[in-house]
Write a structure and sequence with these properties.
With about 375 residues, the protein is mainly β. About 5% of the residues lie in helices and about 50% in strands. The chain is built from two helices and 22 strands. The strands form four sheets. The chain has a 15-stranded antiparallel β-sheet, with no helix packed on it. Strands 15-16-19 form a three-stranded mixed β-sheet, with no helix packed on it. Strands 7-8 form a two-stranded antiparallel sheet.
Amino acid sequence: YNQIEGLRLRAGGKTNADFSTRIEFSGYIAYGLKDQLIKYSGGNRIFLSKKPRQILSLSHRRDLEQLGVSANAWQTDNILSSVFRRTPNNQLNAFEEYKIGYDIEFIPGWSAAVGFNRRDIWSVGAIPFQQEASDGTLRNINRISTSEVRVSTRIALGEKFLNGELDRVSLGTKNPIVRADAAFGIKGFLSGEYEYQRVSINLQDRIEFNPIGMSDITIEVGKIWGTLPFPLLQLYSGNETYFYDAYAYNLMNFYEFVGDQWASIFWVHHFNGLFFNKVPLMRKLKWREVASMRAAIGDLSDKHASEMVFPKDLFNLDRPYVEVGAGIENILKIFRVDALWRLTYLNNPDVVPFGIRTTFQIDF
């Protein structure tokens, strides 16, 4: 359920290895009882080879989305994210996109991808897309159209996988994981309206601090060149549910911060029972202590305001945003609960300075 579609119904599926070990088809169809519109997605993956792993993918999708969510967030129509929200789900935008991509793994743990994305996005929710005219009046922008080439590479040397015919699960690596992404907007090609360049580098690592546990650290830096409307800039990943998101700022609202250059750090330390093991009852429960800190800083050029009027509660992150947490993991072996405190920007509208978040987590 959301405020735009009302009750949303969706059905979908994909083929498995019994159909083909080389070609996979997937898709879904959805319908909102309030807006009475059909949404859909269809695509396929073609395995050109398994060794080395080479995949050609094609897809077309027309649906609604929430901008500024992490890649780890549950889908907008997940029933749990619909029920356990702390704010109305009324900021959705509609989009239509066509994508083609090619992925290759040179050796296990080192892969690259190149793709093209043709995309339209338009407002259907509480945040309109508007531009200010020279006389000060506002006019609505019907659509934002982009044509974009993407290039990326990921290096995780020593990474092991549990392989199936089509899908696989990473078993991790003891080495740092580096991912570099670049995107290039092409103005005038297939009605693309903007020319821009976007580059980001992400580093993940797990560091042992025996005997006091281990830390998972993620650092990212990025920059955007060009003049763009705010939906195409860096919208920092917020979380407006009561579930913990490992790749978002869990006490940040959607559409709260935006930038064209940014740096962030996520730090989580697992104490592995350093304190609880000294208490007999806690030792039997096998609960584990965990602490976390998330911080980000960035900047935003004034030139972007000429492309689209910014929402009144969307801010530049010109000083650090920080939130910290302490929690318990391995509860019944599948749950984690965190108490979180937001330390900065406490005067922003609708701020939640403290929260309890939970998630499903299986530790190996």
